[in-house]
From TrEMBL, chain A:
It catalyses: (2R,3S)-3-isopropylmalate = (2S)-2-isopropylmalate. Belongs to the aconitase/IPM isomerase family. LeuC type 1 subfamily. It is an enzyme of class 4 (lyase). GO terms for molecular function: 3-isopropylmalate dehydratase activity; 4 iron, 4 sulfur cluster binding; metal ion binding. Keywords: 4Fe-4S, Amino-acid biosynthesis, Branched-chain amino acid biosynthesis, Iron, Iron-sulfur, Leucine biosynthesis, Lyase, Metal-binding. This is 3-isopropylmalate dehydratase large subunit. SUPFAM superfamilies: Aconitase iron-sulfur domain. InterPro entries: 3-IsopropMal_deHydase_lsu (IPR004430), Acnase/IPM_dHydase_lsu_aba_1/3 (IPR015931), Acoase/IPM_deHydtase_lsu_aba (IPR001030), Aconitase_4Fe-4S_BS (IPR018136), Aconitase_4Fe-4S_dom (IPR036008), IPM_dehydratase_rel_enz (IPR050067), IPMI_cat (IPR033941). Its EC number is 4.2.1.33. Residues 9-464 form the Aconitase/3-isopropylmalate dehydratase large subunit alpha/beta/alpha domain. Heterodimer of LeuC and LeuD. It comes from Tistlia consotensis USBA 355. Its cofactor is [4Fe-4S] cluster.
Automatic annotation (TrEMBL), chain B:
CDD domains: IPMI_Swivel. It is an enzyme of class 4 (lyase). Its EC number is 4.2.1.33. It comes from Tistlia consotensis USBA 355. Residues 1-122 form the Aconitase A/isopropylmalate dehydratase small subunit swivel domain. It catalyses: (2R,3S)-3-isopropylmalate = (2S)-2-isopropylmalate. The gene is leuD. Belongs to the LeuD family. LeuD type 1 subfamily. It comes from the Bacteria. This is 3-isopropylmalate dehydratase small subunit.
């Protein structure tokens, strides 16, 4: 009988073009997503060596990092940003790569539009010059971020030279308590394994709490795999996956659909498959999570207090915490719920989907009913992950609730997740953010980021401090 | 890509863990369509903090002006996939980074730009960090073929390296050219996949 295999091993084996004696493999890439920041040098490389794109139809490009989230009719004001977006358009035209441009209603963050268009499917290999490509693993696709040299390699050959990753399994027991979301779950996981916990591994998320998540929630979890060091995250495809995909523009056509679903059902890990590393945790222990430092592993429950470096024995670790607290402007022992904020960012490939916006609007609506709005002096922006998410939210009336409650309703893009467009923190400003990285300077030089779930971000906007979302849920 | 065979140079100590790619090069420097000139953004935000003891940042100290080697802590290069981090290091003169561990994507990006990354246990890193803190007099010699680092006191440390990566670095190979020679295998793979999973080809 064949050796039991993991989901990762099945996808890997299905994509090996050639295996070298030293274990390095040439693997086939089914789909390639491209954005404006990490592709110009790759297209330039092709041009200089007279090479073509092997499968333009397996490639999809969209500008997202540099696009303004305000009125776009005037174009992009910043010259460098404009050149980068224009370069993507001209490269796509020259090499025949399909492009969703800035003014297309389908435009959005590359990791939102892949699933939304049905480009992302179980069993595929998917790459993009962006570390949050791990998002697509929610569908049981092997999806990972690559550098620009690898972008060029995939454009030219539709393959990559890789060594197989190790298998890691994170099993999550229990069901998410009221007010606890996929974001809290993944932050708690990163807190537990550390930012290098998954290095060299692909993480498969399993267990009842993961199975119970919607596709949106699964994407949030897989999205932050890279924050735990893993290039890719995976969740086995199931009926939730198939239901999400059915009817989307790029999925298999009628006839082929049944054949594809039958294949997808063969993908989940076999009983008895071996993992190099296994971690289990229970969500019944989880409170809403919030980061206090400058690494996603610096995370605590909202009931916690800012840690005291003096209590840390290891000198290197102590210095690290001291540096983080100095950067964050926090005093040891302060209750996290007493930390005042200046800005709120709701959006990103982590939390810019329709469910996220519904969660925010639900809290805003409750606050409005109690006569509350975004706290005085706080600026709270909501940036939908794509034009279609925005359209859906507007059809549901979410934008009206949010605007009435004092939130700023914006155009789609990466926005203040990494501050490449005009949306950024000023030095010293503190932000409750639904994005994925709280690194120094990530949201603007000197800006201070606290990573939270969408509901927690809404609660922070309404109170003007880090707050427990459960106070608003009743 | 430039070959990497041997390197004798000053090593600069950067004793920090989790140096993420936003620290190596902040996002605002990524608005370029070129691979060159990114040294201007190298460590831009942490440079202004100096050495943490009131002095300038290590690469701004005269002793380390010509450093081509960087000694770092754990999980260097974590975060974003931006190859600009490797381009910025290269533009800043760095050809080799020695640390406890590196993130997967950064590891791959460095190798494709002729930068050798060497992973060593914490006790060896501590020793090299001490050596490096002796400044311009403390040069290291790295011999990739022999997989050795020779310290200023003559002691030698052996390091492991992926055989394929070693081959590419020693010869300065562009792996796209090598893969394109395998086009018949890729054609064959696509033919087989199309027969089994026709929906991947628009069916």
């Amino acid at each position: 009988m064949a050796r039991p295999r993991t989901l990762f091993e099945k996808i890997w084996d299905n994509h090996v073009v050639e295996r070298q004696d030293d274990g390095t493999c040439l693997i086939y890439i089914d789909r390639h997503l491209v954005h404006e920041v990490t592709s110009p040098q790759a297209f330039e490389g092709l041009r200089l060596s007279g090479r073509k794109v092997r499968r333009p139809e397996a490639t999809l490009a969209v500008p997202d990092h540099n696009v303004p989230t305000s009125d776009r009719s005037k174009g992009i004001e910043d010259e460098e940003s404009r050149i980068q977006v224009e370069t993507l358009s001209s490269n796509c035209a020259e090499f025949g790569v399909p492009l969703i441009d800035m003014n297309d209603v389908r435009q959005g963050i590359v990791h939102i539009i892949g699933p939304e268009q049905g480009l992302t499917q179980p069993g595929m290999t998917i790459v993009c010059g962006d570390s949050h490509t791990s998002t697509h693993g929610a569908f049981g696709a092997l999806a990972f971020g690559i550098g620009t040299s690898e972008v060029e390699h995939v454009l030219a050959t539709q393959t990559l030279i890789q060594r197989p990753a190790k298998n890691m399994r994170i099993a999550v027991d229990g069901a998410l308590p009221h007010g606890i979301t996929a974001k809290d779950l993944v932050l708690a996981i990163i807190g537990k394994i550390g930012t290098a916990g998954g290095t060299g591994h692909v993480i498969e998320y399993a267990g009842p709490a993961v199975r119970g998540l919607s596709m949106e929630g699964r994407m949030t979890v897989c999205n932050m795999s890279i924050e735990g060091g893993a290039r890719a995250g995976l969740i086995a495809p199931d009926q939730t996956t198939f239901d999400y995909l059915k009817g989307r523009p790029m999925v298999p056509k009628a006839g082929a659909w049944e054949q594809a679903v039958a294949f997808w059902k063969s993908l989940p890990s076999d009983e008895g498959a071996a993992y190099d590393k296994e971690v289990t945790l229970s969500v019944s222990e989880i409170e809403p999570q919030v980061t206090w430092g400058t690494s996603p592993e610096d995370v605590l429950p909202i009931s916690g207090v800012v840690p005291d470096p003096a209590a840390i024995a290891d000198e290197g670790q102590r210095q690290g915490v001291e540096r983080s607290l100095k950067y964050m402007g926090l005093t040891p022992g302060t209750r996290l719920q007493d930390v005042a904020i200046d800005k709120v960012f709701i959006g990103s490939c982590t939390n810019g989907r329709i469910e996220d916006l519904r969660a925010v609007a639900a809290i805003a609506q409750k606050a409005l009913a109690g006569g509350r709005k975004v706290a005085e002096g706080v600026y709270a922006m909501v940036v939908p992950g794509s034009g279609l998410v925005k359209e859906q939210a507007e059809a549901e009336g979410l934008d009206r609730i949010l605007v009435e409650a004092g939130f700023d309703w914006r155009e789609p893009g990466c926005s203040m997740c990494l501050a490449m467009n005009a949306d950024k923190l000023k030095p010293g400003e503190r932000c409750a953010s639904t994005s994925n990285r709280n690194f120094e300077g990530r949201q603007g030089p000197g800006g201070r980021t606290h990573l939270v779930s969408p509901g927690m971000a809404a609660a922070a906007a309404l109170t003007g401090r880090l707050a427990d979302v459960r106070e608003f849920l009743g | 890509m430039e070959k990497f065979t041997t390197l004798t140079a000053v090593a600069a100590p950067l004793p920090m863990d989790n140096v993420d790619t936003d620290k190596i090069i902040p996002a605002r420097y990524l608005k370029t369509i070129k691979r060159t000139g990114l040294g201007a953004g190298l460590f831009s935000d942490i440079r202004k903090d100096g050495d943490g003891k009131g002095g300038p940042f290590v690469l701004d100290q005269p002793a380390y002006k010509n450093a081509k080697i960087l000694i770092v802590g754990d999980n260097f290069g974590c975060g974003s996939s931006r190859e600009h981090a490797a381009w910025a290091l290269l533009d800043g003169g760095i050809r080799c980074v020695i640390g406890e561990s590196f993130s997967d994507i950064f590891f791959s990006n460095a190798g494709k730009n002729g930068i050798l990354l060497i992973q060593l246990p914490p006790e060896e890193i501590e020793k090299l960090m001490d050596d490096a803190s002796r400044g311009a007099n403390a040069t290291l010699t790295i011999d990739l073929e022999a997989q050795t680092i020779r310290g200023p006191d003559g002691g030698t440390i052996h390091f492991e390296v992926d055989p394929w990566k070693k081959h590419c670095l020693l010869n300065g190979l562009d792996d796209i050219g090598l893969t394109l020679q395998k086009a018949p295998s890729i054609d064959r793979f696509e033919g087989g996949q199309k027969a089994q999973q026709p929906w991947l080809y628009g069916a």
